[in-house]
Design a protein that fits this description.
Blueprint: E1 2-3, E2 22-28, H1 30-33, E3 38-55, E4 68-77, E5 83-85, E6 90-93, E7 104-107, E8 126-127, E9 132-133, E10 136-137, E11 142-143, E12 147-158, E13 169-175
Antiparallel strand pairs: 1-2, 2-13, 3-7, 3-12, 3-13, 4-5, 4-6, 4-12, 8-11, 9-10
Length: 176
């Protein structure tokens, strides 16, 4: 696993007239993917994610499955010992040979309606709702603001192992 030299880190602070924008480029190599059904990497981030690109265009899974997934996870554990998630699992990524013809592109959706039946935005990352307000169930998904801090785990998985001929999988995260 390697963070690529095409990453740009301009610092964590803000200054007078503008916000610093950073680009994290991370690549899971063929050697790391081959024979595995899941890979992860821990990166240090502090800021607000705006765009995420998941490039699986060269992915080849051994059993020909097309089901893959992507998620960003916090380094904070809940009382049960499970990591807290930043957004819901993105599933049904095409990991088959010749499957995805372009990288997947996701963005955070602060303030956007994501599941109200009138403004469905499938590329916006969301956090599952839950609990109640005044006795009414809060079961709709809500948009994720993109805020991250500390160690962020990048998780990529598939239901069958990656083939030895798979190309690397590249993750690009644009954040301020």
């Amino acid at each position: 696993m390697a963070e690529l030299a095409t990453s740009i880190y301009d610092g964590e602070a803000r200054y007078a007239s503008h916000t610093r924008v950073n680009r994290l480029v991370y690549q899971f190599t063929t050697a790391e993917l081959t024979g595995q059904t899941a890979v992860f990497a821990d990166v240090q981030m502090n800021g607000k994610i705006h765009n995420i690109y998941v490039d699986t265009t060269g992915s080849i899974v051994a059993a020909g499955t097309t089901t893959g997934s992507f998620q960003l996870v916090s380094d904070i554990l809940d009382v049960q010992g499970a990591p807290m998630i930043y957004h819901q699992l993105i599933s049904a990524l095409d990991m088959s040979e010749g499957g995805a013809s372009t990288p997947y592109h996701y963005q955070t959706a602060e303030g956007a309606a994501t599941e109200d039946g009138t403004n469905v935005q499938s590329n916006h990352l969301v956090v599952a709702g839950g609990g109640t307000t005044n006795g009414v169930a809060m079961d709709d998904s809500c948009p994720w603001t993109g805020l991250v801090c500390g160690k962020v785990r990048i998780k990529v998985g598939t239901s069958s192992a990656w083939d030895g001929g798979t190309a690397p999988i590249t993750i690009v995260i644009i954040y301020e």
